[in-house]
Specification:
By secondary structure, the protein is α+β, with helices and mostly antiparallel strands. It is built from six helices and 28 strands.
Length: about 500
């Protein structure tokens, strides 16, 4: 009996020791892997992706392995060194424990359900548009000038095309670099955001410029880091437009305000000094008469932030959502989905461009409903591989909001036509519909406006056919088709005889 009793104690101690070691490894991982962003659960990726892609990048950022610096351009190295630790943040022994924890806990593969869409999109008629030779399939911008009945299309090579409503080219303007946004206002020169270098980099060579009537350009603000979004807003009610800019960058970047001082001078105020600022929406969320800033931060520390304007360029920050570092946040917009007079948030996540380029079941389109006090809760999710952007409008004019969404990283092998999905708002919920024409490109940009002036909103998709993750036969098809823009012409008012 005593022998059995002691054997039982020894066995229990052994099991407890094993459990404690795993728990210790978990605490260690949460301590270090949750120090710069929310802790990424091992189950979010498979073992191979953790081991070969994500953990080596984590080791680099934690000062354990400087070899990746050998592959980084000399122009970017100084900026990256500024955000890396001076020495290792963790001992090699503890790092090996963290690696073991992820390897032991992560699944061999993620469970990916086949997301079939059986309904064909019949409300819209798809029409392919081709840009001139040398500029096709490199679209970075689409914008409408409704006052002049023009559509602008920008390209990666730094060309801005002007089309009439029949999509005939009426002008072509050479830009210093690829444009990412164009703001058009009545009786004002267009304001254009130029990325400088579109590929990942740290160099501050982007700018905001005014496009004059004689087609010359004058810089408003320069030394921007790969800017991807901006707004012109009078934040302090002094009758002068200030700027808010997403300096997306790569390892470094910022979300920055530029206060107008007069005489063309601006004073920079940094709201966030990390990379990944992707999207900004301006609205008075608290009703104090001053414009607030809703923004999406991507890259490592993925968040949806709300900066409440307190006046005199003072802002109070509230973090609405914080996501995993592998979430792949890509876009936000606002709309009132439940007709309560409050702005809800539509959010997409599907960025697969960096270290975990695998299909993920948690990529898709989300709706977060506003409680009425700017607290938000998820009310709807649709899994959509690589979801990158969404547009909301009452496309069928039945009194509720529908959704158009694009993906830059769809399941190219099995469902390349799911690069665009239209969600019709029905009494049974959002009904997904697709068009086979969506496999004609890789959709980077999307806009919704009434280009043909028949009273309903159309959808325009812009293609940027990077080859990563794309099967060779699909790339061959894209090169042959050379479709730069897919116009989805809304047939609603045609059907009504308008």
């Amino acid at each position: 009996m005593k022998i059995f009793f002691f054997a039982l104690i020894i066995g229990s101690i052994s099991i407890l020791s094993c459990e404690n070691q795993h728990q210790k490894d978990e605490r260690l991982a949460k301590q270090y892997c949750g120090s710069c962003h929310i802790f990424p659960e091992p189950t979010l990726l498979n073992k191979k992706t953790w081991e070969k892609k994500v953990l080596p990048e984590m080791a680099f950022r934690m000062g354990l392995d400087n070899s990746p610096m050998n592959t980084i351009s000399f122009e970017d190295q100084a900026a990256i060194l500024m955000v890396l630790p001076d020495g290792p943040m963790i001992s090699q022994e503890d790092w090996e424990r963290i690696k073991k924890y992820y390897n032991d806990t992560a699944p061999d593969s993620l469970i990916i359900n086949d997301q079939k869409v059986t309904d064909t999109l019949i409300q819209f008629e798809a029409k392919p548009i081709r840009l001139p030779v040398g500029q096709h399939q490199v679209v970075t911008l689409i914008a409408q000038d409704s006052a002049k009945d023009r559509v602008y299309v920008g390209t990666r090579q730094g060309r801005l095309y002007e089309f009439n409503h029949n999509f005939e080219v009426t002008d072509s303007i050479k830009l210093p670099s690829a444009p990412s946004k164009l703001i058009l206002r009545d009786n004002a020169d267009p304001t254009i955001l130029l990325m400088g270098i579109m590929d990942p980099n740290e160099q501050a060579v982007g700018s905001i410029a005014m496009l004059r009537k004689d087609r010359t350009m004058s810089n408003e603000i320069d030394s921007l880091q790969r800017p991807v979004d901006f707004e012109r807003v009078d934040f302090n009610n002094d009758k002068a437009d200030d700027y808010i800019i997403c300096n997306f960058g790569n390892y470094t970047g910022s979300l920055a305000l530029y206060k107008a001082l007069g005489n063309g001078e601006f004073q920079k105020h940094t709201l966030s000094n990390v990379s990944g600022a992707r999207r900004i929406i301006i609205k008075d969320f608290d009703g104090n008469g001053l414009p607030d800033i809703l923004t999406l931060m991507t890259q490592g520390d993925e968040r949806i932030l709300l900066f409440y304007n307190q006046g005199d360029f003072q802002f109070r920050l509230t973090t609405l959502f914080r996501f995993s570092a592998v979430q792949g946040s890509s876009y936000i917009d606002i709309a009132d989905f439940n007709n309560d007079g409050k702005s809800d948030i539509i959010y997409t996540n599907g960025d697969n461009a960096d270290y975990s380029a695998i299909l993920k079941p948690y990529h898709g389109v989300h709706i977060f409903l506003n409680s009425g006090t700017n607290e938000f809760k998820e009310s709807w999710f649709y899994p959509m591989h690589g979801a990158s952007q969404a547009r909301v409008a009452d496309f069928d004019q039945d009194g509720d909001l529908d959704i158009g969404a694009i993906s830059f990283f769809p399941d190219f092998k099995n469902h390349p036509d799911q690069g665009f999905i239209y969600f019709e708002n029905t009494p049974q919920g959002f009904k997904p519909q697709i068009t086979r024409m969506a496999n004609k490109g890789r959709w980077m940009t999307m806009e919704a406006f009434d280009y043909d002036h028949d009273g309903d909103k159309d959808i325009l998709l812009g293609s940027l056919t990077f080859a990563n993750l794309v099967p060779q036969d699909l790339m061959t098809q894209w090169r042959a088709d050379q479709v730069s823009i897919l116009v989805l012409r809304n047939k609603l008012n045609n059907a009504k005889g308008l």
